[in-house]
């Protein structure tokens, strides 16, 4: 009778697993540390940069600021992150919202460049390069393929560059910028709505019961749907930091655009005695960008022991918005 002996392979199996753990463990740790370091580097917010341009060409500062913001969105550390599908970009949350805030301001400015700043009157022909650039910046910010947002935005920058080149050449009939009070008011009207929207969303971080004033001050006004006299408004808990960083990106881009407008519309602002009002708008936006000392966006209650960063940001943007309203009133005066 054959004697079958049972072979004990347990030590060999454990030894093999241990060898794999010794190899994979450090490798996984290195990958995690590398991704964490990249995520930290890529999540750092950028400082405001004032572009230096020729002072003798009206509109050049505004055009350069638009090109600078567009370039920065694509070429900052980590590149454009809003449409990333791989780590660490896909794991990041705050900077894509910051990018979106800046992108919305870029879209608004290129639209006003196309429809107002570059046209002498409503019946004039629009600039061909701005007509191509404006829709390219309106491609879905999260699109990563067919088309990739980055490729569309780069093409938009190329058209802005072409407009800039024609703006500074010697041909008086090709490429222009009209720094008029009514044109500036058109843009500020959009800015006013953007800041008002963000201020309300930031204030709703703690939840509010607001009186519905949709039809106030107009007895003949009507709405498509009946609304209650009071409404509960609260930003979802998981969206609080999203709104906060969208507001930071908005303030970053808008401060640079307004600095540029301060140069291009210097004569108009001087004539309307509006220089200091615009300077106050810029100061409020820059103060809103003071570096964060907290690792997270806190959402304390009104007078609780913890800070509420959303309410602080709402305060800055509300004051900036109030100054924008005053600025538009000054520009409307004869």
Protein model, in words:
It contains ten helices and two strands, in the order ααααααββαααα. With 334 residues, it is an all-alpha fold. The termini are far apart.
Question: Into which percentage range does the β-strand content fall?
Answer: under 5%
Radius of gyration: 26 Å
Instruction: Give the % helix.
Output: 55-70%
Low-confidence stretches: none
Roughly how many Å apart are the termini? 117 Å
* Main pleated-sheet profile: 2 strands, antiparallel
**Could you say which overall geometry the principal axes of the C-alpha atoms support?**
globular
- How many domains would you count in the coordinates? 2
- The computed structural class is mainly alpha
SSE sequence, one letter per element: HHHHHHEEHHHH
Total helices: the number is 10
Mean residue pLDDT: 88
Biggest sheet, spatial arrangement of strands: 1-2
What is the number of strand segments? 2
How would you concisely characterize the structure shown here?
By secondary structure, the protein is mainly α.
Q: Which characteristics define this entry?
A:
globular, 2% strand, 10 helices, 2 domains, two-stranded antiparallel ribbon, single chain, 2 strands, mainly alpha, 334 residues
């Amino acid at each position: 009778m054959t004697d079958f002996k049972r072979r004990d392979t347990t030590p060999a199996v454990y030894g093999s697993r241990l060898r794999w753990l010794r190899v994979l463990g450090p490798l996984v740790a290195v990958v995690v540390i590398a991704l964490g370091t990249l995520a930290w580097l890529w999540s750092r917010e950028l400082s405001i940069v004032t572009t230096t341009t020729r002072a003798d060409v009206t509109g050049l500062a505004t055009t350069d600021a638009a090109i600078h913001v567009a370039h920065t969105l694509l070429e900052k550390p980590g590149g454009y992150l809003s449409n990333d599908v791989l780590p660490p970009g896909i794991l990041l949350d705050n900077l894509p919202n910051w990018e979106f805030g800046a992108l919305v301001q870029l879209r608004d400015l290129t639209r006003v460049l196309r429809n107002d700043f570059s046209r002498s009157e409503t019946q004039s022909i629009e600039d061909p390069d701005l007509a191509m650039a404006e829709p390219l910046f309106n491609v879905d910010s999260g699109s990563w393929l067919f088309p990739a947002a980055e490729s569309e935005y780069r093409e938009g920058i190329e058209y802005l560059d072409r407009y800039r080149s024609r703006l500074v050449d010697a041909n008086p009939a090709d490429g222009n910028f009209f720094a008029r009070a009514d044109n500036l008011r058109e843009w500020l009207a959009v800015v006013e709505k953007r800041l008002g929207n963000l201020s309300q969303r930031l204030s709703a971080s703690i939840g509010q019961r607001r009186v519905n004033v949709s039809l106030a001050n107009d007895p003949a006004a009507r709405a498509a749907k009946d609304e209650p006299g009071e409404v509960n408004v609260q930003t979802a808990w998981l969206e609080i930091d999203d709104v906060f960083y969208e507001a930071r990106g908005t303030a970053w881009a808008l401060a640079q655009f307004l600095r540029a407008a301060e140069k291009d519309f210097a004569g108009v602002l001087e004539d309307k005695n509006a220089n200091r009002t615009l300077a106050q708008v810029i100061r409020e936006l820059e103060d809103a960008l003071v570096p964060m000392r907290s690792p997270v966006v806190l959402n304390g209650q009104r007078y609780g022991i913890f800070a509420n960063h959303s309410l602080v940001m709402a305060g800055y943007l509300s004051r900036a918005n109030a100054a924008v309203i005053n600025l538009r009133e000054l520009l409307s005066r004869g």
